[in-house]
């Protein structure tokens, strides 16, 4: 999961995504449509690898209808996840990442397949589906006991799934920090 702190970092994230698509899937991006955000108006975007970069007309979100609807759906999921879990708005990024993760593993009524299947060309591993948990549920992260009589876990809140290892993202309640661990 790449995060962007400043608008000037958007092009670097875009290049990394393009490289990943080319390396993992052997596909090449030919067209890209964005809004008129200043982060998309640089010459780098319009001249990168011969990609045809189209800008939507100012104040016409209808031209980006699919993206706008997807963003609206994700925002609804994030809002519900935060309210149901009792976590504050500072966890919106974790909730958004988890909402995307879950959405990519739900069957589309249009294609009859999950976005994961369409992107990767294979079904979701059964063990991955069995390991899904509710955002914000209380869990215990395993710890190494100092002796036979000490605690063997820390109380945490489940935030989501690690992007680069087979683990969960957990919020350690006592220490107030995020860890990645198996439960």
Any idea what the shape is? elongated
Strand order of the largest sheet: 3-4-5-6
Major β-sheet, in short?
A: 4 strands, antiparallel
Give the SSE string. HEHEHHHHEEEE
Task: Provide the residue-averaged pLDDT.
Answer: 89
Taken as a percent bin, the fraction of beta residues is 15-25%
Note the total helix count: 6
**Radius of gyration from the alpha-carbon trace, in angstroms:** 20 Å
Total beta strand runs: 6
Overall tally of structural domains: 2
The multimeric state of the shown protein is: single chain
Strand pairing plus helix content: what structural class?
alpha+beta
Question: End-to-end distance, in Å?
Answer: 21 Å
Q: Considering DSSP H and I runs of 4 or more, what fraction of the residues is helical?
A: 25-40%
Low-pLDDT segments, ≥5 res = none
Which SSEs are present, and which pair or pack?
Layout: H1 10-25, E1 31-34, H2 43-47, E2 52-55, H3 65-85, H4 92-103, H5 115-120, H6 126-130, E3 138-142, E4 153-161, E5 168-172, E6 177-181
Helix pairs in contact: 3-4
Description:
- This protein has 183 residues and is α+β, with helices and mostly antiparallel strands.
- The protein has 2 domains: 7-59; 65-181, no CATH class.
- Helix content is 36%, strand content 17%.
- It has 6 helices and 6 strands; from the N terminus they run αβαβααααββββ.
- The chain has helices at residues 10-25, 43-47, 65-85, 92-103, 115-120, 126-130, and strands at residues 31-34, 52-55, 138-142, 153-161, 168-172, 177-181.
- The protein has a 4-stranded antiparallel sheet. A two-stranded parallel sheet has the order 1-2.
- Helix 3 (65-85) crosses helix 4 (92-103).
- The chain is elongated, with a radius of gyration of 20 Å.
- The model has no long low-confidence stretch (mean pLDDT 89).
